[in-house]
Amino acid sequence: MTFADKTILVVGASGVLGGQIAANLAAQGASVLGTATSNESAARLPESVALRLLLDLQSAESIGVLADYLKATEKLDGIVLAAGRVGFGGMDAVSAEQAAQLMQVNFLGQADLVSRLLPAMQTGSFIAAITGVVAERTFPGMAAYCASKTALSVWLSASAPEFRRAGVRVLEARPGHAETGLATRPLFGTAPAMPQGMTAAHVAGRIIEGISGQATVLASTDF
């Protein structure tokens, strides 16, 4: 698959990894629609993004407004789900409200958006979602985060046949720790000491290779 003249939505394009993916796709000729949570974070969207959009994954209204707008105005060749938050703490330290917040951002909101946008997707299009290595193995002190990302992974796998019938390919990417600064901005808790991670440029490049190469899963060992 080539990206020239393709219209691709990058959810979380204001983040380090999402921004790298958006910029790479634009450099290859795609018309990139990039989302940010707020006007403040929208300032971090790459200049090469063709259309800047606001999306708060914690707001059903925001998800609905964006989906309705895109269905009325765009035919999408791809969606990249690069948004996400992290939280740290043992099960006795994380409240139900905190866990629910992670689940909403990392799974429920993204699944809701994709489901609503399916009518706007072209035959032969793709959905590429970043779940991470936590979809393969768990880590202590990150139970709520692992649960939210694993939920997205299982949902993608279970929904893949439905997407295929609609002419949409699903790619799940499971990179390990990358130096995106995500762990320094947790929703709650404090990150443990972590080894040096991969660069965002490396992870973004492998994901784009996976999309163009028609992959359906990029395991942690593929990065």
SSE blueprint:
Elements: E1 7-11, H1 16-27, E2 31-36, H2 39-42, E3 51-54, H3 60-73, E4 76-81, H4 96-117, E5 121-130, H5 143-165, E6 168-173, H6 200-212, E7 217-218
Parallel strand pairs: 1-2, 1-4, 2-3, 4-5, 5-6, 6-7
Description:
By secondary structure, the chain is α/β, with parallel strands linked by helices. It has a single domain (about 5-220), classed as NAD(P)-binding Rossmann-like Domain (Rossmann fold, 3-Layer(aba) Sandwich), CATH 3.40.50. The chain is built from six helices and seven strands. The protein has helices spanning about 15-25, 40, 60-75, 95-115, 145-165, 200-210, and strands spanning about 5-10, 30-35, 50-55, 75-80, 120-130, 170-175, 215-220. It has a seven-stranded parallel beta sheet, with helices on both faces. α1 crosses α6. It is globular and about 50 Å long. The two termini are about 20 Å apart. The model has no long low-confidence stretch (mean pLDDT about 95).
Summarize the structure.
With 223 residues, this protein is of the alpha/beta class. Helix content is 39%, strand content 17%.
What CATH architecture would you give?
A: 3-Layer(aba) Sandwich
The percentage helix is 25-40%
CATH topology: Rossmann fold
Instruction: Give the low-confidence spans.
Output: none
- Overall number of domains: 1
CATH class: Alpha Beta
What coarse outline follows from CA principal-axis ratios?
A: globular
Percent of residues in β-strands: 15-25%
Query: What Rg is obtained from the alpha carbons, in whole angstroms?
Result: 16 Å
Please provide the count of β strands.
Answer: 7
Order of helix and strand elements from N to C terminus: EHEHEHEHEHEHE
Distance between the termini: 20 Å
